[in-house]
Amino acid sequence: MLKTTQTKFRTIVLLFFLFSIITSFTNVEKNTSIEDFIAFEVTEEVPLFKGCDGSSSRKEAVECFNKKMMNHIKRNFTYPEEALENNIQGRVEVSFIINEVGIVKDIQANASNEKANEKKILETEAIRIVSLLPKFTPGKHQGKVVNVKYGLPITFKMM
């Protein structure tokens, strides 16, 4: 029964993620220094998942990136058992850098929960999911390979 419940929760969280990703671009820092990183939404050539290399425009590349990101989360998401047992829900804002060689680094997560133990449970799962991302083709801005900061919300909700 726990597996069936987890499958249902995965589906619910995925739906929330799909809704949330549309708004995620407004939550990424816009005041960036080109020496440190460039925000994903202003990067001229976004980082690419394997399989997105054939995108003919920035719009297609972003759509492919978002689709591959959703698939990655769907495949790797597991509602934490302790969260299930204790009815812990919340929204975690996750941000990370895709560096100049395409590796994910500096993963940060901030859950909306007030209780520290609840925050930690959800943040740990969000960080785990992001840490499993594959190596990317690095992003470029003004003709140079750059660090790109990307952010997204992951919602943990039980229904």
Keywords, separated by commas or semicolons:
159 residues, alpha+beta, four-stranded mixed beta sheet, two-stranded antiparallel sheet, 6 strands, elongated
3D architecture notes:
The protein is α+β, with helices and mostly antiparallel strands. The chain has one domain. It is built from four helices and six strands. Strand 2 and strand 3 form a beta hairpin. The radius of gyration is 16 Å and the shape is elongated.
Roughly how many Å is the radius of gyration? Answer: 16 Å
N→C terminal distance = 16 Å
Helicity range: 25-40%
Beta-strand segment tally: 6
Largest sheet features: 4 strands, mixed
Instruction: Give the overall form.
Output: elongated
Mean pLDDT equals 85
Name the helix and strand elements from N-terminus to C-terminus, one letter apiece.
HEHHEEHEEE
The tally of structural domains comes to 1
Number of distinct helices: 4
Q: State which percent range the strand residues make up.
A: 15-25%
Unreliable sequence segments? 11-35
Q: List the strand order in the largest sheet.
A: 1-6-2-3
Summing up helix and strand content along with how strands pair, one would put the structural category as alpha+beta
